[in-house]
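Homework help board

Subject: predicted structure for assignment chain

Our instructor gave us this sequence and asked us to write out the predicted structure in token form, then describe one feature. I got the tokens but I'm not sure how to describe them. Can anyone check?
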Amino acid sequence: MQNVLQYGGKYYVCGTGRQSLVKDKTANDNYYLLTLAAIAQELKYRKAPEKERVVLAAGLPLAGFGREKQRFREYLLRKNQPLRFRYESVSYEAAIEDVRLFPQGYSALALHPEYLREEPSVLLIDIGGWTVDLMRLDNAVPNAATCRSLEMGMIRCIDEIMEQVRRNVGLSVTDMQIERVLNGQPCSLDPAAKAVIQQCGREYTQRILSCVTEAGFDMKAVPSVVMGGGAGIVKRHVRPQDGLCRQIYLEDVHANAMAFERLAGQMPAR
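My token output:
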């Protein structure tokens, strides 16, 4: 029963592979089911009772925040309360009292105000699974007119690398192998395949830098905060000759989640 969720008379195994891409997370129940599993894991981690009241703190890309937040809140805050389900053979009863949504990326900077201090303008680059979200902050305030969302996240990068390795070396490598090589971690893989992966990582970084410039941002003039799952990869493949202004890398993939929790805790109860 490891990682098994029982809900609505059905069994679901969580964490066995990458979710297929859906641009609208409310289109099916996958993210809702993962949320139930996450609630169970959090309660267990915090040694809280299996019957508990819960406030969900979540995030959305800033570019579509205003458009999507009400629909996503309703998706998570359903009427059939409390929720009764089992996870890893333990019964849970969770009453979701509220859902509080925050803009991704910008919220994470709330944990690091020192990156914005004494900088009139800072570019935020959040490299996620499917999109690279861009936003400029002027005097620590988001400039909404500068928000951009580019469909060139890590999923696209990894899929292209898989195809390139297959063509050049004749091997079918996995997501995990590619991520380890890109992050400079040890992996028992053919040296020729490793070389292809590293070259693709550099080309991916160059494409990001070019697309950021095409979106109207000058990374040679404005300091940048790079975060998300791809931050470590970009950090390893940016070269001094790129001539970029000050670069700050938030490589902790939990940065957004920790920020959502802190911000939600500072808000008064509804």
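Reply (TA_rk): Your tokens look well-formed. For the description, you could write something like this. The first helix runs from residue 30 to 45. That's the kind of observation they're looking for.
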